[in-house]
Amino acid sequence: MYSKTVMEHFRNPHNYGKMENPDGFGRVGNPQCGDEMIIYIKVKDNVIVDVKFETFGCVAAIASSSITTDLIKGKTIEEALKITNKDVVNELGGLPAIKTHCSVLAEDGIKAAIEDYKKKKLKENNND
Amino acid sequence: MYSKTVMEHFRNPHNYGKMENPDGFGRVGNPQCGDEMIIYIKVKDNVIVDVKFETFGCVAAIASSSITTDLIKGKTIEEALKITNKDVVNELGGLPAIKTHCSVLAEDGIKAAIEDYKKKKLKENNND
Amino acid sequence: MEKRIVYLDNNATTRVDDRVVKKMEIYFTKFYGNPSSLYDLGFEAKNAVEDARKKISKILNCSDQEIFFTGSGTESDNIAIKGVARRYQKKGKHIITSSIEHHAVLNSVEYLGKKEGFEYSLVKVDSDGIVDIDHLKSLIRPDTILISIMYANNETGAIQPIEEIGKIAREKGIYFHTDAVQAAGKLSLDVKKLNVDMLSLSGHKFHAPKGVGILYKRTGINPIPLFHGGHHEKNLRPSTENVPYMVGIAEALEIAYDEFEEHKKHIYKLKMMLKEGIEKNIDGLVLNTPKNSVFNTLNYSFKGIEGESILFSLNDFKISVSTGSACTSGSLEPSHVIMAMGREDSISHGSIRFSLSKYNTEEEIKYTIEKLKEVVERIRKISPYKV
Amino acid sequence: MEKRIVYLDNNATTRVDDRVVKKMEIYFTKFYGNPSSLYDLGFEAKNAVEDARKKISKILNCSDQEIFFTGSGTESDNIAIKGVARRYQKKGKHIITSSIEHHAVLNSVEYLGKKEGFEYSLVKVDSDGIVDIDHLKSLIRPDTILISIMYANNETGAIQPIEEIGKIAREKGIYFHTDAVQAAGKLSLDVKKLNVDMLSLSGHKFHAPKGVGILYKRTGINPIPLFHGGHHEKNLRPSTENVPYMVGIAEALEIAYDEFEEHKKHIYKLKMMLKEGIEKNIDGLVLNTPKNSVFNTLNYSFKGIEGESILFSLNDFKISVSTGSACTSGSLEPSHVIMAMGREDSISHGSIRFSLSKYNTEEEIKYTIEKLKEVVERIRKISPYKV
Ligand SMILES: Cc1ncc(COP(=O)(O)O)c(C=O)c1O
Ligand SMILES: Cc1ncc(COP(=O)(O)O)c(C=O)c1O
Asked: Cβ contacts (< 8 Å) between D248 and chain C: which residues?
């Protein structure tokens, strides 16, 4: 049912766990739908230097979270924003049609975290 | 499906064949219904001394014909008229419900043959 | 010889091929998972089912997404007919079928007529038992939504002009279903060439088990299911998948077409041998099988005698044949198929079907001719109708 | 140990008993006749079917004339519900069922509601997943013609008060059907004691194959069949009889009740062992199986994590369990059963069902507890919800 890559990421997810004092933080989905994802990012000079996730969800949700953190790590904010759920699916070697929403959730997660980062930065700048 | 007795009578029917110059003759059923039976009787001093049948039909029809000829042979006309399809079924050790009509046909056959015999006798008497 | 059964009723059902039994075995006790389950045992079962579906789709020349497993030929026929009628009744409520269909088709159509407000027309057949295309054309109405005509008749073996009917149906935008239960392993099942929208098969007619059927359904046609339940078979036929039988029916169909020429040659030779033997040795025959028939079926009426008595007498010699169709053996009516061909009632009551398979031998056929002659002569002696 | 599969999903399907396989075998290649056929091979097949029917009727405490073979549990449910609704709709068009039924029942009732003008009401269950009798009583209307309540729930194992509901239905002159698919081999199937008019069973839940079901139907109730065709099963379910599976399901049912006490003792002991092991080793549990449950089923939600991820992780250790019901594994909705018990969505998404059989061992249970603990801890580390 799942590709080898999906199973690998599910079995040994990369970058999971909480992050203290992240620069950006996105929470998407909800447990009612069976999937919830938190993405934490640390940004230095417009580059995502660290990323972590916490996910409540199925195999596809966990694998999507894991691969997404890999995908954005080291990328600039602009590069990261270009990543779509299609990229997530491709990197995973495909997802069952019924699980596509998990990759969408991952894309939304990045966007939300970056949004949060931008907002915080704006505030900081304003406070300066 | 059929009792041992039915199969015995079907395999080796008693009293089958044409009878030349019978005293009574009954033809019942028709090939449209899948069963047709002819009963021939010879009567002496009110006793059925010989009987033959010819039947187009299924196993039950042939077995019913056979046993019926056995049943009425040697009987008086009055005794023979008392034989019902139930007697035929009993003697055969039972018949599948769907085949009951074959025993009814046999009863009808006897009645028709006796009727014919009586009619002929009446005529003869009248001619006397 | 006399100890072994001579089984000449392969249109009623067939012996399961040993290779099919072998294939199914492991799915009872080793790969017994539920194909919907999310663990290895389930995935293995799921793969087995999907592989089976693919194998079948190759033989039918369609997509595997168009193959559906059912519980029988009757069920396939019922889904196709009732399902399409119910789904598309807004387009029209008229159905055409033939007078020689199996009861799975005839009684489904009749039910729709009696209980759900549909109307139906029966196409006539000629004295060979082949549907009259001109009559069929004349029956088409603007509100005709479905035509269901069988591919080969179970009693006589007569092959019906499916391609041509399919073309007519397509031109008129009418859905076309064929009951191909008696064609499997005997005729091409290429659904593209046949111009059919739906096609029914039953495993036990080609050496798979009884209790499994196939429905080919062209994508785009959506019959209303007979069952509601889980998501199996894309909701068309919910029920936990009968994995062994699905594997088995695919294997049997593959064998039937892999070895098609070989079986056809063997069986047709036996049929001709039986035909010549009967016609040389027995008189008062009415042949009910036309030239254009499947290679395994031969049907005669023996004048002056009734079918059941022949059956039981042959059974005493361990020869298995049938009269009418097995399904109606509980009934007293003469064969509706032979009647539709315009035969008299007494002839219809006496039709005997010989249907051969790859397992039959020349020796069996010789033995059958000999015993049949004895039996017919014996029963004719009892009959008031002399030949 | 790690090489062998630990199969704890016996409510999804079961391994076929070797004795059942053995019994069925000869009907594929030796006694392969069509039970309708009028020769020895046919009579033998017919006898096998009727013997099977008698065996089953003894266990259900009814006449063999009241036992019907079908192609699945889903089919039995569909015949009972749609068949009775369609037949008796002139008496009324209201149906009562519960919110925790299998989809074979729920979707049949819903279909009748959507497409055939019936109305239906769903009985609530309490937090133990047991139907609320008072609520049921309050739903009865003068036009209620059918009540269908399952005997044991497939996800939680909760036993429903069938006897009592049967009494109420009888008093009110309402037909009562029970889906007893999950009760076979676990609870008494005495239809007289249970006060049921119809009862559905499915072979593959008690070590017979998938693809064969039983419908008990009290004489006097006449559902309209789903299929039309030949005269099989007194017209209620035409199709050439699946002789091997009919023999197999009867054998499996007989074994289940002959060895009932033995299996019950063994399985219940394992269930209790599993329960204690889980509760001792893992926290953040929600028990979804009430005290009054079948002896083989145990269902928990593990707070903070979702079911599928537990499933796949356990599968890596060759342990087979399920989340929700297998039939809905294609869907993303949380278990409707656990939801109906008033649990939160996130809890319903994470329910895991352990369902044991006679083939499980203590060693397997110990191994399962150990691995489950590992798995739950691992996945909780990934989750934002900490326990
Ligand atoms: C309670 C219940 N009813 C009905 C069914 C359907 O049975 P089948 O899969 O044989 O159609 C199942 C299992 O699948 C079940 O657990
Ligand atoms: C032409 C035809 N259609 C349908 C069927 C029904 O198939 P099944 O017995 O598998 O329901 C049969 C045989 O029984 C048949 O010969």
From this structure: none
